[in-house]
User: Fold this.
Amino acid sequence: MDALPELLPAPAPDLAALAHALGPLAPAFGIRWVEHCGSTNSALLEAPPEDEGKIHVLAAIRQTAGRGRRGRQWLAWPGASLTFSVLWRFAPASSAPAGLSLVVGLALARALEKLGVPAVALKWPNDVLAHGAKLAGVLVELLPGRYAAPAAVIGIGLNMRLPADAVIPGQPGGVTDLAREMGEPPTREHLLAAILAELHPMLATYERAGFGLLKNAWQQRNAFANLPVRISGEGADIAGICLGADEDGALLVRDAAGVRRVLAGEVSLRPAS
Ligand code: BTN
Assistant:
């Protein structure tokens, strides 16, 4: 594991400004913003707060063991990214949350578009890109069977201001941050409020109607629509044309054998060279 950069003091988040930015949605959320923790996802998975009818959000100024998909680290530099997790409890009769990470990506994309970030696109299943480079990632983990209703921990990491010498491996399109994409990024409180304000209604729609109702909005932002891609991992090695996502959030790729359906497990998508 790479050595983590030194912990530097960071200003405390302004929770009053966050509540103000959330406006009428503020009472719907129970938000804790800690100075540091290992991983906000792990913290919510290991000790989920009681269900008091609020949507619990745990944000950390800095994570010391942030996790990404496929066993990767989410690297931390002080003030470099907004990192938080949301504990979403589904209604009792909800079925398996197919396509959830795509819905979260879509909410992120919409929030960023409204903030004026240009050229936002989605890379199946969980990345948000700007000008083709990774701006944010989503890690959804389920809390199976511990509750009457299924629950998901939705982790989001969004690059705000990466150090100039930051090296983040495994990103074929490179990485970017809000400072590069929009000059002066909004405050982290404003940014978190903007994301939660998109996530809240979108998760409600998803819970009611599934990914199907949001599919077209996702397809419109698909970074690889009709482009050659390669899918690898979990024994899969598929090269073909990216047709987009289906009603369950699976990726459809057309190759010589026909249309293949790829589920969002530990696979990765790359542009085919
Ligand atoms: C990815 O791009 O592979 C997903 C990255 C998800 C990172 C976020 S940061 C907040 C939350 N806590 C974690 O440990 N991971 C997620």
About this structure: The two ends are 30 Å apart (CA to CA). The chain has six helices and twelve strands.
